[in-house]
Each structure stands twice: as C-alpha cells, then as structure tokens.
C-alpha cells in the first residue's frame, strides 16, 4: 500500500474513533439519566434532589450496575463498536486501493517502462475501468493513447532511418563499382565514363540535399528567404526551363494565367523546387503528344494553382501514399533519378509557406492543386 493510502487509513481510523467517542459519551449520558430515573422511582425522591443523595450515599455505581444488568446487551454493543472501528478503515482502504491506488501504481509502472524506451507499455484496462468516466479512468485512457502515438512515431522513425540508409547505400555502391571498374581497367577511363560517374555523384548530392531540406522543414527549422513575388513570373520561369523536355515528348504546355499580377510572400527557390517537382512528375507521366495545363486563379486573398496532365492519373496507392518519404511508383527506379522524396518535400515546403497541396484525378489525368495566401 502507498504512503497516501496509509494516510487515508489512519485518518479514517481517527475519524471513526472520534465519532465513536461522541456516540459513547451520549450513550453514557443517557445511561446516567436512566439510572437517575430508576433511583428516583425506587426511593421516591424527585430526580433533582437525587443527585445529592446518590453522591452522598455512594450508591450510583450500584445503580448503574443494576441498570446495565437490566439492559443485558452492553457487551454486545461494545463488541460491535470495536468491530466497526477496526473494520471500517480497512474496508475504506481496500475500496480506495481498488479504485484509485492500484490504477495509479500501474500507470506509474507503465510510465517508467516508457521512459526506458519500451514503447509497447500500456496500463491494463479492465471492463470496469473502461466503463468509468472519472478522472482516474480518463487519465489512464489518455496515457494509453499517448503511448500508442509514441510507439507509432518511433516505428516511423526507425523505418525512416532504415529507408535513408538503404537509399544512400545504392548510389554509393554503384559509384564504387564503376570506380573499381576504371581502376582495374574493365571500364575505359574516358569522358563518357566520367560523365556517368558525375551523374551518380549528382544523384547522391540531390538525395542528401533533399533529405536535409525535408528534415529541416518537418522540424519547422527551415530558413525561408521570403520576398515579394509575382506568381506568374515564377510559373513562366519554371515552364521555360521545362520547355525543352516537353518539346522532346511533343507535349503541349499550356499556361492559363490571370492578367492581374498575383503576389505572394515566399522563398522563390523553394517554390521553384516545388513547381519543378510537380511539373517534372507531370511530364514524366504524360505520354508523347499529350498536354499539361497550368491554371492560376486568385480568389479572396488566396491563389489556387492547378497543374493537370493528360497521363494515366494517380494510382489509388499513389493517391494515398505520394506524400510519404521515398514512396514512388514501381516503374520509377533509382536509375531514372527518382528517390520518391519529391512530393514529401513539396508538401513540407508548401506547408512551411502556410499553404496546402492536394492530389486528385481529373477527367483527363492527374492534377495537383496548390493553395497559398496572397498579399
Ligand atoms: N502526374 C502524376 N501522374 C501520376 N502519378 C504521379 C504523378 N506525380 C506523382 N505521381 C506518383 O507519385 C509518386 C511520388 O512522386 P514523387 O515526386 O514524390 O517521387 P518521384 O517523382 O518518383 O521521385 P523524385 O521526385 O524524388 O525524383 C511517383 O513515383 C508517382 O507514382
Ligand atoms: Mg518527383
């Protein structure tokens, strides 16, 4: 039993003792009155005068004894009082231990396990606790929910670290293999080979850079170089940089921009990165001779940017998981440059700007909608 509970037991015992003392006092008073009545009847003396007579004659004790004997249940009464004095505090202690102390001890045990890194620790909840709606039961339920969230986060962290290690190992292994080939004379040390080596080093560099930006953005520690921007200018710049790629696949790139400048406060390089990733994805998924439609509208201090392509659209799995780190469609291998960080990064960057990014399928294909606050 805990110290608090012992306190409760002692306090209850004291209170019971106090109450019993008052009852006993009243009991003796009534006994005294009865004895006075008996004696006054026996000697025919008025009760007021009897006091003196009794004191003088010293017969009070005898009279009391007589009255007691006539009652007969004296011993039984005291035995009951004793039993109540002893039993009541223990019953109370047992009840409060079941109701409060035991769940709190279990909570403390689970909290200790949690601090030691055992994220599977939970407070056992029996049916009566589940049904209870008092503060103790609510505390236990909240603790178990918190422990479950921590366990999920820990699993995600472990998975994420394993995925990062896996993603970094692959380009390093490829680089190493090719460098060994050059050293051993298996691969010709010409400009073509060096170009390939540089390509792999670039991929590795992009992966590390993306991971760094993503971690900073998710931790809310990414420093944005914010400035006043006109969204149309940024979109024209991105579209211009991707024109060659679009022409290669004979894809029509249509920009539908309002005449009035749409102004935002944002980091131009980070927003470029988002738009570049979304447009890059659209170009990759749109078949030759397809088209991509970029539409910008301003509505009640908000800009809505939609980039729709005429590709096959998001698969149900991609719709659900595209924002996860390292998620990419099975056909998008590392060789084609995809790490599956693009959408996760885009989401973090847009959210760092206070905006939202959504994915859906339109009648023609995939569509990405970005919403940002305008100035
Ligand atoms: N326009 C699109 N049409 C169909 N599926 C898409 C489209 N854009 C993205 N996806 C799906 O979402 C996945 C994740 O996209 P994301 O940009 O995160 O990764 P990635 O483009 O494969 O790699 P990275 O962007 O790192 O180079 C893609 O692999 C693809 O399955
Ligand atoms: Mg991408």
UniProtKB/TrEMBL annotation:
Domain HAMP: 98-155
Phosphoprotein listed as a keyword: yes
Main enzyme class: transferase
Any one of the GO CC terms: plasma membrane
SUPFAM superfamilies found in the cross-reference section: ATPase domain of HSP90 chaperone/DNA topoisomerase II/histidine kinase, HAMP domain-like, Homodimeric domain of signal transducing histidine kinase
Residues that span the membrane, as ranges: 6-28, 77-95
Superkingdom in the source lineage: Bacteria
Main location: membrane
SMART domains in alphabetical order: HAMP, HATPase_c, HisKA
Swiss-Prot/TrEMBL keywords: Kinase, Membrane, Phosphoprotein, Transferase, Transmembrane, Transmembrane helix, Two-component regulatory system
GO molecular function, one term: phosphorelay sensor kinase activity
Subcellular localization(s) per the UniProt record: Membrane
CDD domains (UniProt xref): HAMP, HATPase, HisKA
Domain Histidine kinase: 163-375
Reactions it catalyzes: ATP + protein L-histidine = ADP + protein N-phospho-L-histidine
This enzyme's EC code(s): 2.7.13.3
PANTHER family: SENSOR HISTIDINE KINASE TRCS, SENSOR HISTIDINE KINASE YKOH
Name under which the protein is recorded: histidine kinase
């Amino acid at each position: 039993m805990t110290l608090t509970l012992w306190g409760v037991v002692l306090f209850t015992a004291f209170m019971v003792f106090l109450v019993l003392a008052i009852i006993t006092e009243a009991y003796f008073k009534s006994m005294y009155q009865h004895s006075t009545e008996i004696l006054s009847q026996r000697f025919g003396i008025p009760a007021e005068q009897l006091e003196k007579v009794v004191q003088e004659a010293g017969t009070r004790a005898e009279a009391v004894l007589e009255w007691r004997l006539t009652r007969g249940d004296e011993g039984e009464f005291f035995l009951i009082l004793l039993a109540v004095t002893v039993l009541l505090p223990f019953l109370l202690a047992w009840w409060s231990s079941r109701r409060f102390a035991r769940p709190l001890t279990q909570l403390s045990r689970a909290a200790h396990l949690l601090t030691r890194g055992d994220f599977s620790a939970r407070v056992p909840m029996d049916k009566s606790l589940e049904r209870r709606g008092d503060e103790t039961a609510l505390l236990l339920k909240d603790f178990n929910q918190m422990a479950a969230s921590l366990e999920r986060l820990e699993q995600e962290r472990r998975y994420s670290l394993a995925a990062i290690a896996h993603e970094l190992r692959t380009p390093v292994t490829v680089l190493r293999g090719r460098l060994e080939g050059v050293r051993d004379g298996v691969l010709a040390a010409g400009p073509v080979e060096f170009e390939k080596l540089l390509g792999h080093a670039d991929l590795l560099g992009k992966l590390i850079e993306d991971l760094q930006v993503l971690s900073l953005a998710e931790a809310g520690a990414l420093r944005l170089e914010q400035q006043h921007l006109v969204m149309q200018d940024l979109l024209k710049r991105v579209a211009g940089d991707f024109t060659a790629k679009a022409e290669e696949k004979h894809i029509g790139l249509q920009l539908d921009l309002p005449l009035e400048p749409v102004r935002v406060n944002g980091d131009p390089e980070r927003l470029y990165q988002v738009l570049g990733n979304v447009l890059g994805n659209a170009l990759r998924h749109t078949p030759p001779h397809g088209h991509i439609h970029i539409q910008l509208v301003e509505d009640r201090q908000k800009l809505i940017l939609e980039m729709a392509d005429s590709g096959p659209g998001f698969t149900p799995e991609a719709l659900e998981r595209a924002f996860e780190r390292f998620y990419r469609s099975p056909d998008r291998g590392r060789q084609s440059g995809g790490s599956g960080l693009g959408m996760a990064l885009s989401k973090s960057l847009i959210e760092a700007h206070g905006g939202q990014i959504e994915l859906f399928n339109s009648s023609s294909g995939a569509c990405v909608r970005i919403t940002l606050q305008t100035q």
